[in-house]
Amino acid sequence: MSEQLAYVIITPYSLHKSRTGGIFARLITRTGLELVGARLFAPSDELVRQYSEVVISANDPQDRKIQELIRDYILKNMTPDPKTGRRRRVMMLLFKGDDAVRKVRAVIGNISADRRGGETIRDTYGDLIFDEEGVVKYFEPAVLAAPNAEEAEIKVKLWARYSDRDGGIVENTIQYPADEKPQRTLVLIKPDNFRFPTGRPGNVIDFFSRTGLYMVGIRVLQMSVNQAMDFYGPVREVLRTRLKDMVAAKSKSILEKELGFKIPAAEEKQLGEVIGPIFGDNQFENIVKFMSGRAPSEIPQDKWAEPGTEKCIALVYEGHDAVKKIRDVLGPTDPSKAPPGSIRKEFGQTIMVNAAHASDSEESSEREFKIVKVGENHFKKVVEDFYGKV
């Protein structure tokens, strides 16, 4: 089979109902494909109209009437709200791999009134309800995808052409009460969730959905060494200084055992002063390697700006008291100290391999946004690397 690029669009309703995590989990585990791109869109009338015009296809196995329902749904539910002019959030995911379009479509499923019990994404999250006269009463497709590789290319290129103007960290898509001032905060779903195809990234997103916050940005990220060093830079000095006593005690114990004599307290303190910063630097290198796949000491400095070999997902959440709400669901850095029901208790292993990162303050989130650049158009780059100029 030849390698293909497949897309999945998560509809505004699925995003609003926080079904994103469940959809993510099924797509990653059941297709076995690589998630290579993701972007939030607030589509314009123009983009929605052009997309609706290429939805109906003679090559789609779904009934023509279902395709017309999808076209009408797109025009009604993905355009800006006619009453307020507020744009709606749409998420687009890109998957790459052998026979990717068919695999994605098989997991998504077709739409039928006689749906089965959760076999496909649309079985679980979609709806097609008729009244007594056989007229469609309610329709929600949950997700959208192409029926074949040729049409996937046409549609992916279309969205890529609008991805600068209509995509990124979307603005003014949520209406808040007058007395509520929304915050934004950054989340990283860490590389330990992507070592093999697993539902963990989706499960982590599901946990965050409990906050009632809104996702307004997403990016698939391969952190460079430079990015990882900048991102975790504030931790470096902490590691160099706060671990001195622990390093001193451990060094004293090892030396006394090996050399067979007691080391006085003053000399123990000196061991911490000498070895502590070296140990801290080593721990910092381990963090950088965990996030980027490369330790700074392992590659030439002129390679530090290149994308790393490890994958994570960067998310931007928006809403009232966002920083605190996300941190509460995440739990403390050490999974062994995290409360039941928190992400790190459920999915974390160690202080470093702890499932996810979240900004600890508005100031931290601003600093981290500048490093991770969630709004940067990596989506379009993935499309152009695969198909050429769009």
Describe the structure.
The chain has 390 residues and is of the alpha+beta class. It has helices spanning 12-16, 20-31, 45-53, 64-77, 100-108, 121-125, 149-161, 200-209, 225-231, 233-242, 244-259, 265-292, 322-330, 343-347, 362-372, 378-387; strands spanning 3-10, 34-41, 90-98, 127-130, 136-140, 143-144, 182-189, 214-221, 312-320, 356-358. The protein has a four-stranded antiparallel beta sheet with strand order 2-3-1-6, with helices on both faces. A four-stranded antiparallel beta sheet has the order 8-9-7-10, with helices on both faces. α9 crosses α12 (265-292). The chain starts with a strand and ends with a helix.
Number of domains: 2
CATH topology title of the largest domain: Alpha-Beta Plaits
Q: Can you write the helix and strand succession as a string?
A: EHHEHHEHHEEEHEHEHHHHEHHEHH
Low-confidence stretches: none
Query: How much helix, percentage-wise, in residues?
Result: 40-55%
Number of helices: 16
Number of strands: 10
Quaternary class = single chain
Let me know the CATH homologous superfamily of the largest domain. Answer: Nucleoside diphosphate kinase-like domain
> Structural class, judged by helices and strands?
alpha+beta
Under the CATH scheme, the architecture of the largest domain is: 2-Layer Sandwich
Q: How would you characterize the largest beta sheet? A: 4 strands, antiparallel
Question: Average pLDDT, to the nearest integer?
Answer: 94
Instruction: Give the distance, in angstroms, between the N- and C-terminal Cα atoms.
Output: 24 Å
Q: In CATH's first tier, which class of the largest domain applies?
A: Alpha Beta
